[in-house]
Write a structure and sequence with these properties.
single chain, about 850 residues, alpha+beta, Phosphorylase Kinase, domain 1, Transferase(Phosphotransferase), domain 1, Rossmann fold, six-stranded mixed sheet
Length: about 850
């Protein structure tokens, strides 16, 4: 029976607006107040159910308790007599929203990201009001959101809402809501809290960005199975230009374990507003899809981090024992080729040929190739082949020589079995210089044949970007690479000039573009140049990749620039591509470990650092990285073992003292921490890492006078506040705290304001560094903003902060450390470290 045209109480029904599972909604005119309203009637079939009537009235009570611009207002609930013999009409009087349903809006066209974020923020603000009043909506979905003509979002339909302290009106164990938006606990019929609304908001945010739901199926049971067991495809893989930070927000809101989600909608709101600000400003951070090997659930702080399944299969290789092991011939070192030319200036050319042959060999699947860094120490050596083979732990060694004579080149090479000293293969090439690239590839093929290794089908594809018909360009490229590897500021300038000259002669020379990108990245990473050099590095590396997507050097250079920006996930993506193209690419392998360490995923970091050891067995940094990671995992005994191996290789290796200083700082031994930092500063007075560690060891010990002097020096060197090390704190913030402690309030607050402003610059640039968030937690704690301090500390944890030892004693967090909330957060971080350590020990036992 149609109700249109009827007058119910003092409301004239004008038209039907829609219906849901429990009610029908009509547009009506309030004849008393002369305004348009919406009336929601309980469906006819539900009128005889006391439970449904109670739930219907409950909706009115829930929504009427709320007064917020993003929640549809409820004016009244009433009953009127129905036709003779019929049950009474029960209806709710609500505001009439003149607009479009969000579900229809999504279906009509993809929503711009700024619109998506605006709507999500409005819904979150409405939920914030609801949750503060103790009301959980339990049916957040796009069909229950109206968007007015002015773009205002309104949350509708509180029919399933649950009021704090109110008796449940659904059957025990029954699931309520729309399946596609239900949280896992909701599908299981469990009691739910405000975190179920956060899950549903995450689903709806996913839907707005992707244009489809994350969990879909023909049957409810299939959708429920996905919600409980499957991970949705990342939104960055479904739509271009989606910031990685937005993907992180969606992923956190949709964690299957409620304890791993945002715990309060205000925390999600802070993150949404931060992304919205950057999108509106058109800032950097438009993300790209992560490789499928990275598309797995990141169980970071609240439950531990899942490790790649492949690591378990590769454990015997990754977690190698410290002592040398027996080797096969399918491991090789290429000794520096001797320069036999009349001109000693051609030394760079013979070194370049050596590295190019290493690069070609590295692309052969199944062959372990020692990196350039390890073999260059044998230049001019008097050691025998067996001695070198034992030191490098390889089965075969290639040695050779080069001679340039005008436009001719002579290259002689021979492959030797380390154990028998027998020649496995030897050949001499006397060709035109233009054939140099063919010679390099031929040497790689012949070695593969001698070692009985099958070449990859695409092994020659890389030649497109590495070879050039312009030998002058090649010459400049080799010279540039030689200067780049010297790792000092003056030679970095020379490298840049030489790479540019190579590109002047050959504009589409992929490896020269990659070399220039690397040199720009090196300027920021090692010599303190402004971060705008990284933008140029990204542009150059991207151009190199467009010329030759098979260039491992270009992908590695892009990863270095991303890392400099603090974009750790994108850096990992680029480094993984480089390693896929060149499995023996030491720098890329080690840098993957570093990125996982920056993200607080120490078990995965350790696996990659241990992969780097056999690629560079005489390089102290390889052992330093492993030792530092064991220290991060609270395994100090193994950390000291690896540091000892590092110093056995290079007794004056200063970075070991930095690692030991940090380890002692964590253990509360401030005197030893300071002593190790000073051992570095006695030789390198301006070393920022050592200054930072020395300053914090004095500050933690309460020696503010000495700490102040150290941090003033560090702040003068690091004027942009972007230098972050293991302590995860800035010098400016430390100075602010010290000034406050010694009664210089104005100076202290000025330092904190400066730190906050510099931190915001990093956030605006989409940096994923946890240290920025931790620094902001410290600043807010010192300013007495406890709520904001906890929000930033939680975000720091999400981004990889794991140093609970220092957090427990950090004087800058003194006004939080007695709170139960702080103790719970520390316990969660400690547990995550324990879980990672447990996984490492299990893999080492295999």
């Amino acid at each position: 029976m149609s109700m249109i045209g009827q007058t119910i109480s003092h409301y004239k029904i004008l038209e039907k607006l829609g219906e849901g599972g429990m009610g029908i909604v009509y547009k009506a005119e309030d004849l008393r107040l002369k305004k348009t309203v919406a009336l929601k009637f309980l469906k006819q079939e539900a009128l005889g159910s006391e439970e449904e009537r109670t739930r219907f009235v409950h909706e009115a009570q829930a929504s009427a308790a709320l007064d917020h611009p993003n929640i549809c207002p409820t004016y009244d609930v009433d009953q009127v007599e129905g036709p003779a013999g019929a049950a009474k009409h029960t209806f709710i009087v609500m505001a009439y929203i003149d607009g479009q349903g969000l579900k229809e809006k999504i279906a009509s066209r993809p929503l711009p990201l700024n619109v998506v974020l605006d709507i999500a923020i409005q819904i979150a603000e409405g939920l914030q009001e609801s949750h503060e009043k103790g009301i959980v909506h339990r049916d957040i979905k796009s069909a229950n959101i109206m968007i007015t003509s002015r773009g205002q979002a309104k949350i509708m339909d509180f029919g399933l809402a649950q009021l704090s302290g109110q008796t449940k009106v659904t059957k025990t164990g029954a699931t309520v809501g729309t399946v596609a938006y239900m949280s896992p606990e909701q599908t299981r019929g469990e009691n739910v809290d405000l975190r179920t609304d956060i899950w549903s908001l995450g689903v709806m945010l996913y839907e707005m960005v992707a244009g489809r739901l994350p969990f879909r199926g023909d049957y409810d049971q299939a959708v429920v199975y996905q919600i409980l067991h499957d991970e949705p495809e990342p939104i960055t893989s479904l739509r271009s230009n989606v910031p990685m930070e937005l993907e992180r927000i969606v992923a956190k809101a949709m964690q299957k374990n409620a304890g791993e989600r945002y715990q309060h909608v205000d925390e999600m709101l802070v993150d949404l507003k931060s992304v919205s600000k950057r999108v509106e400003a058109g800032g950097p951070g438009e993300g790209t899809a992560a490789p499928r090997s990275l598309r797995r659930k990141r169980r970071l702080v609240y439950g531990g981090i899942s490790i790649f399944a492949v690591l378990a299969l590769a454990a015997l290789y990754i977690f190698l024992p410290l002592k040398p092991v027996s080797v096969e011939r399918k491991s090789i070192a290429v000794l520096p080729f001797k320069n036999m030319s009349d001109s000693k200036e051609d030394e760079y050319f013979s070194d370049g040929i050596t590295e190019d042959i290493i690069t070609h060999l590295s692309q052969i699947g199944g062959l372990t190739v020692i990196s350039r860094t390890s073999i260059m120490q044998y230049k001019g050596t008097q050691k025998t082949i067996p001695e070198i083979g034992q030191e490098l732990n390889v089965g075969a060694i290639l040695e050779g020589s080069t001679r340039r004579m005008g436009d001719r080149i002579r290259i002689a090479s021979q492959l030797i079995d380390v154990h028998s000293d027998a020649h496995l293969w030897a050949e001499e090439y006397d060709r035109n210089m233009v054939d140099v690239f063919d010679i390099q590839r031929d040497v790689a093929r012949k070695i593969a044949q001698a070692l009985k290794i099958a070449l990859r089908p695409n092994n020659d594809e890389h030649a497109r970007g590495t070879r050039t018909g312009n030998l002058t360009a090649y010459d400049y490229y080799l010279k540039g690479r030689e200067y780049y590897y010297r790792f000092n500021k003056e030679d970095n300038e020379w490298a840049i000039d030489l790479f540019k000259k190579a590109l002047h002669h050959e504009a589409v020379y992929a490896v020269a573009l990659a070399g220039l990108a690397d040199a720009y990245g090196q300027r920021v990473a090692k010599f303190g140049f402004p971060e705008n050099w990284l933008d140029s590095a990204i542009a150059l590396a991207s151009k190199a990749i467009s010329i030759d997507d098979g260039s491992a050097e270009a992908h590695k250079a892009l990863g270095l620039a991303y890392s400099g920006k603090g974009w750790h996930r994108r850096a990992v993506q680029s480094y993984l591509k480089a390693v896929d193209l060149n499995p023996n690419y030491l720098t890329a392998v080690a840098n993957i470990g570093a990125e996982y360490s920056f993200m607080g995923e120490f078990d995965e970091a350790l696996a990659w650092f241990k992969k780097a050891v056999p690629l560079n067995p005489t390089f102290p940094f390889s052992y330093y990285n492993v030792g530092g990671t064991y220290s991060n995992l609270d395994d100090y005994e193994k950390a000291r073992d690896w540091f000892s191996k590092c110093r056995a290789l290079q007794p004056d290796f200063l970075y070991v003292h930095a690692a030991l200083s940090l380890m002692y700082l964590r253990q509360g031994d401030y005197d030893r921490s300071f002593a190790d930092a000073m051992r570095i500063l006695s030789l390198v007075p301006d070393d920022l890492e050592a200054l930072t560690l020395a300053g914090w060891s004095k500050l933690f010990a309460g020696d503010y006078t000495q700490a102040k002097g150290i941090f003033q020096k560090a702040a003068a060197i690091d004027s942009t506040n972007t230098f972050w090390y293991g302590c995860g704190r800035s010098s400016s913030t430390a100075l602010g705290f010290i000034y406050l402690q010694i009664g210089q309030q104005a100076e202290g607050m000025n330092c904190l304001r400066r730190s906050r402003a510099l931190d915001q610059i990093q956030l605006d640039q989409q940096s994923e560094r946890y240290a920025i968030r931790y620094d902001l937690a410290l600043i807010n704690a010192l300013e007495g903003k406890r709520t904001e301090a906890y929000q930033w500390l939680r975000r720091a944890i999400d981004y990889g902060w794991r140093d609970y030892h220092l957090g427990q004693r950090d004087p800058l967090l003194g006004n939080l450390q007695t709170d139960e909330r702080f103790k719970e957060m520390i316990d969660v971080v400690r547990d995550s470290i324990g879980e990672m350590g447990k996984r490492v020990r299990e893999l080492e036992r295999e």
